[in-house]
Amino acid sequence: MEGARGAVKVAVTEAQRYLSVAADRADFYLYRLTTGYRPWQLALGSLLTAWLLARVLTAVQRQWRLFCDKGLVQTVFILVKSLPGIRGYAAREQAKMVAKMRDEMKQTYAKGDQPLRVMPSQGWPAAELEAALDQKGAGDVHFAEGTSKVSGTVYFAGAELRKLLDRAYATFAHTNPLHGDVFPSVRRMEAEVVSMVGGMLGGGGNDAPDVCGAMTSGGTESILTAVKASRDYMAARRGITEPEMVIGESAHAAFFKAAEYFKIRLVKVRVGADYRVSGAAVRRAITRNTVLVVASSPGFPHGVVDHVTDIAKVAQDAGVLCHSDACLGGFVLPFVADLGYNVPPFDFRVPGVTSMSVDTHKFGMAHKGTSVVLYRSPALRQHQYTAITDWTGGLYISPGFAGSRSGALISTAWAALVYLGRDGYVDITRCMMQAAKAFEKAVREDIPELEVCGEPHMCNVAVKSAPGSRGVNIYAVNDCMSARGWHLSALQRPAAVHMCFTAQHVDIADDLIRDLKECVAEVVDKPDLAKGGNAPIYGMAAAIPDRSIVGEFLIAFQDAQLQL
Questions:
Q1: Gyration radius from the chain CA atoms
Q2: DSSP labels, 7-25
């Protein structure tokens, strides 16, 4: 023991001597380096050196954050593409792609429908205008009641409901809730819609007596509004200035948009084998900068509800807000539960859920352009408002992003809820679930080349290729279904398609199952079908490691859609 202590003492002594010599040498070199310079020159040099080091450190931090968010492969691709020669080549190829897409889109317009590039100098007669509208509409997909071949998209149930909504729209077409003193009717209807939807989702009872909210233009705006309010609430309460948001990889694209708009770092977590986000995954992703965690109820791709109870508990324990996104399922899951199906807890009855989004213009069956954002308390809702006190136009406040809004759309949401009532929604949900369950059962039992993704909690069923040699290219199957008039939603990671059953699909389950069986058999017999149609495009998009290339393709596609 004494020998060990002696050795340690000698080592410490030698280290001290080495550090002393090193310090003396550093002092000598620094003296030689600064000899002959005036004090102001030394001060300026020090400032320039500090500025340069700060710039270098900032650049390193930026690249490190990019690496953490994007991964090694995509980070390398991004850096390579920033080189001048590569950037120019990519721009030329993108221009070719845009030209090709524009030509293809022109083929989708109704025959004889010539684009208007300038406003007519004289207005068209009413009869001529009506004929032009009919001609434009002729190029759209049409179907009889209950026989839609389009996944989701159209949600109305019955001609009588549509007639009532059209009447409501016409009655309140001139109204604007921004002028509540002029149009108190739509102000009252908005408050009533929010109250009815909040009560449907667990608000108003002992668990969440103060649930409140507002109407928006759609699910994306509801999500953006909730994220903005949550960010600002946490900044005010916790002083978080570099906010982060935790979402599952299956969360709606609007959360990506919100992160981009509001400068929030997006932290994505993987779903489990059940396609659901778990509380454990969220717990690992939360940091001191987390302002919001998101649970999908259900996720758009696979129709399964995340483990909301566990996620909300994790958020509550960490002092973080939790949003349950029920844009798709808000007007289905409560009634699915009424029918006796298994529905995991997902609304304000779950402690820790602080906000929700639910679309009245989907399964709520109102006209397109309405949704509801809900909060557990008014204290959180206040952070979605914009109050302007110093404008020369007077005092100004609006509840969300829009100033003027359509009172007509608010009236259609009110009319749909009051006309259908809870019993009406339950009856419609029963029919939708019967169609969805028949489809799910047929895939599981009669189409061995495919399998259902997870255990859907509502009428949104995703299918993918079965593993191993008995599988089939699902995108080629989708091309075959498209040729028969079906419009299924193509998914990725994993490659899949889904069918979202609405009231317009209650009579088509047998036709869908028959066509799917036949298309699978056709792709099995003709594997080369996977080399044509959109299958190679979807396959390539899913396989490209540099997602920015796929993003550029999407931007070019959007540009083409907005051009004549």
A1: 30
A2: HHHHHHHHHHHHHHHHHHH
